[in-house]
Amino acid sequence: MSAVDEKLLASLQPEFDALKLTPREVRSLYRIFMKVDIDHSGTVGLKELLNYLEMGEAVFKDRVFSIFDEDGSGQIDFREFVLSLWNYCTLSKATLDVFAFDLYDKNNDGELSVDEAEELLKDLYGAHYAQHNPTARFVAFELKKVCEKSSLDIDHFQNFIQYHPSLLFPAFQLQNALRSRVLGAGFWERASERRIELSDGKFVPISRLM
Hints:
By secondary structure, this protein is mainly alpha-helical. It has helices at 3-18, 23-36, 46-52, 59-66, 78-89, 93-104, 114-125, 129-132, 134-149, 154-163, 169-181, 185-199, 206-209, and strands spanning 43-45, 75-77, 111-112, 152-153.
């Protein structure tokens, strides 16, 4: 690894320390990043990254990584790559639903509107899910009924998922696939345990952890 690479990793390590990522683990993630960054520009396109990881294109997948695309360029650097992966792959089943809720609560009012819930479904299952996916169509019908009866705050959302786990099934599939393709499920299980230690078992945004 060149001196420039070492300098970059050394400059970023204090941030990664806050997430309990060791220098050795960071180097492993860096090697994966460099395989994607074939032109050595220091950034990779979101679609390029997903294609390399054999994830295919989907709006929800783009959203997961674009959270850390700070300038909205569609490109992420190594720091953003690590933060995106860590933030998503260390979520537990109990906190992935909170992550999804926050991701689609666009106006940050603590509730999902009918339109926001519909956007979540389209991003997870595709724009034409109502025509091609009976399960998603049923979940959408039930979810809209809940939204029309009362505000869909996080408690109602989590209660809904308890009875309709298929709503976030594609999100779990994405997480499992990412874990498998990047350092393996065992690594992310250990990282998840560290996140629980850092957050006392609650969902805490990565910005607060750092």
